[in-house]
Amino acid sequence: MFKLFAVFLGAMLLAVSYGGLPGGYTDRPELIEDPFVKSLTSFAAEYYAKKENIFLSRLKVTHVQTQIVAGVNYKLDFTGEIVSDISGKLATCNAVIYVRFDQTQSVTNIECH
């Protein structure tokens, strides 16, 4: 019984620290300049480069949301300059990166326009 209570209490403390209850996405404007979020953005851009053979530079995070699941989903909106385009066109991207509690990261979705 105590173990169940401890797990429940831990989940609630985690939910409060991330600003929401498990299930829904929560806007996190304070994370836009966060170094960890910037590293997740680079991780997503590298994944996109491997998947679509389109390389992005000068990444800029514009919106961050988090969702608590069995880890944390980070929903990121960001822009990046298309490297192969000499006109300096910007791509606008939306990505979801799943980060397990052991810090394992995976891109679950990414779209760039």
UniProtKB/TrEMBL annotation:
Entry-linked CDD domains: CY
Domain Cystatin: from-to ranges: 20-113
Keywords: Signal
An annotated Gene Ontology molecular function: cysteine-type endopeptidase inhibitor activity
Entries under InterPro entries matching the protein: Cystatin_dom (IPR000010), Cystatin_sf (IPR046350)
Signal peptide: 1-19
Pfam family, one: Cystatin
Protein name (Swiss-Prot/TrEMBL): Cystatin domain-containing protein
